[in-house]
Amino acid sequence: MTTTVAPGSTGAYVKLAKLDIVDYYLGVLVVWALLAPALRLDGGVLATMGVFLVGEVFVIVAMVALDDLTGYRDGSDIANYAPDAPARKLNRKPLVAGTLTEPQVLRFGLITAVVGAAVWLGALAIAPHRPMWTLVLVAVTYFFALQYSWGVKLSYHGFQEFFLAALGWALVIAPYGLVTGGVDGVVVVQALIFGLGPLLFGVYSNTNDVAGDRRVGRPTVAALTSPRGNMLFVAGVSACELLLILALPLVGGPWWFPLALLPTILLRARQLRVGFGEGDILRARRIGIDVHRVTVVTLVVVNLVVR
């Protein structure tokens, strides 16, 4: 497979950064809509959320760059993006495509990590509220984002699926706490729903990448279990999302919230059918991305109406 990205070019770094995958960044919209109307246009609140988002982008870019470096070094990316995998876009992996070198990727990952830390410190400095739990949550999120598949290699020790969800949870709860000083049940449940979105397309990627992950000993659920066991796990996570949607009215959300999230429920069922009924895992992954974005739009609309 050929690539149109020039070696060492800005385009190669853009591909490395995966800036088109915005799904974690959408959490800031959910946070903004969850705020009381008086806070939505408050200068200090908007500044804090904006700076936090910029730092978030740098931290996640560092995370995915270091993940690519590790995946290239252990051979899993070469296996998963091999020429016999035409559905995968090779130029999304600049090391495999040969458009960036290992030193370039490592340097880029470390620089963006440092910038991300500095920007997040700036967000903490200007935040209207700084309860200790938010400071700890931001620090823990930063540490484990960089250690996801580099350093201690969290995802190589059986924690990958939990991390994919927990990152989304933190990226809603932390900025909300910084601008309001606390959280309530509605915020927590919506953060949990939000975090399951990236997980529920990540597990389909893992299903597609099972051979390469097994080869390098990366213990995803898909790699550790049988195809049926993996299917049951994905179905179980999907069911957890449904239970959270049904539970929101019990913690203070509107009674009609599950009806508003009906598109999410139906699309999630379709994702399962396409992925495991029809066996089209990569199309199911694409559906998962769409489901997450539909969910975010719905959460924002519901919160603007209710709060």
Throw out a few tags for this protein.
307 residues, mainly alpha, Farnesyl Diphosphate Synthase, 16 helices, globular
What does this 3D model show about the protein?
- The protein is built from 16 helices and no strands.
- The protein has 307 residues and is mainly alpha-helical.
- It has one domain: Orthogonal Bundle (Farnesyl Diphosphate Synthase).
- Helix 2 (27-34) runs parallel beside helix 16.
- The termini are far apart.
- It comes from Saccharothrix ecbatanensis.
Q: In the residues, how many domains can be counted? A: 1
Summed up, the helix count is 16
Mean model confidence by pLDDT: 92
Unreliable segments of 5+ consecutive residues: none
Which bin fits the share of residues in helices? over 70%
| SSE series | HHHHHHHHHHHHHHHH
SSE map:
Blueprint: H1 10-17, H2 27-34, H3 37-40, H4 43-74, H5 76-80, H6 94-97, H7 102-126, H8 132-146, H9 160-180, H10 185-208, H11 210-216, H12 221-224, H13 227-247, H14 257-260, H15 262-277, H16 281-306
Helix pairs in contact: 2-9, 2-10, 2-16, 4-7, 4-9, 7-8, 8-9, 9-10, 10-13, 10-16, 13-15, 15-16
Subcellular location: Membrane
Membrane topology: Multi-pass membrane protein
Transmembrane segments: 21-39, 45-66, 105-126, 132-150, 162-179, 185-205, 232-257
Nutshell version of this structure?
GO terms for molecular function: transferase activity, transferring alkyl or aryl (other than methyl) groups. The protein is 73% helix and 0% strand. It is mostly helical and 307 residues long.
